[in-house]
Amino acid sequence: MEANVEISSKPSLNGYVMTGGSGNQSYAKNSSYQRNVIDATKLLIQKAVSEQLHPRNFLALETFYVADLGCSVGPNTFISVQNIIDAVKLKYQSTNDKIPEFQVLFNDHLLNDFNTLFKCLPLNREYYASGVPGSFYSHLFPRASLHFVHTSYSLHWLSCVPKEVITSNKGRIHHLGAGEEVTKAYSRQHAVDFANFLQARAREVVPGGLMVIVLPSRPDGVSHSLISLNIMFDILGSSLMDLAKKGIIDEEKVDAFNIPIHVASPLELEATIKQDGCFSIEKMESLPEVSAAYMYHMHHIPHFVSLTLRATTQELISEHFGEEILDGLFEVFTNKLVEAHKDAKLGLRSNLFLLLKRKEEGIIN
């Protein structure tokens, strides 16, 4: 990709992590929406493995390697991994091949709560488990070592805030409403990061290996202003400005704070995949809406949504403003959500399922 340095600020060495532990405000307790999205992929993963995975291409394979990138603290990662393993076992059984052992590699940033992750490992698991700390925008594993890569609700996080945004996005914490140039900067940063992700995986995934990417998306042609996740961050930014007006935090600190997230469209993703050239797109489709039970909570209990967003942003906010503002901030945010619900301004939620297959040619050294 051109001009990596030109459009990017320095990536965070420790990255952005979800709230650890297993308390009431943890990601483990407040990620049921992400869990519902994972549940919606189960049959798609089973079909993908059945149709696209060919055990005999891997010769007499003793160990099948699965990586879950952006695993956080569980329990969602364990559900994803088990769905994959169940599908692979069915495939081996259908071809009368010997089922290999499974090694699962759980990856997230250095500051991820791996202690909680491994304390919660299923006791009856059918795999060996290892933790691999580091950014998935760089190389993490040996060359041609992975047979199946999975990542869910992680690739919308950027490696850093685009440097143009840091000095030109006053009064906002995201690109919604900030003007075309700021939005384009976020889009360019996402393209660079996604290209780096694909280049790293192209080196690590065996020819014929599969990769499933699940992430929030913006349907082609739909404005960023209609996307629920963008609206949530706009409301969060407004809540921070309310605290600044009350003198609780400095307005300059709000001006210097930006959420490193971009909700890409299928066309954006497809363009980067084709430019990379190492993976074929076997499937790209929108997932069905999450369960009715979750949507009831989301639309009728703003506190539920507030806890979900807090679990994903608390560490980032605490690092910049201090943890003492969190309770007050999310109380304001919850109240604003109530008003947004009354005005039917919660936006569109769309999730994308991507199945990629490593091409036989183009091995990267």
From TrEMBL:
Gene3D superfamilies in the record: Methyltransferase, alpha-helical capping domain, Vaccinia Virus protein VP39
Pfam (any one): Methyltransf_7
GO biological process per UniProt: methylation
SUPFAM superfamilies in UniProt: S-adenosyl-L-methionine-dependent methyltransferases
Domain of life: Eukaryota
Family according to the record: Belongs to the methyltransferase superfamily. Type-7 methyltransferase family.
Protein name: S-adenosylmethionine-dependent methyltransferase
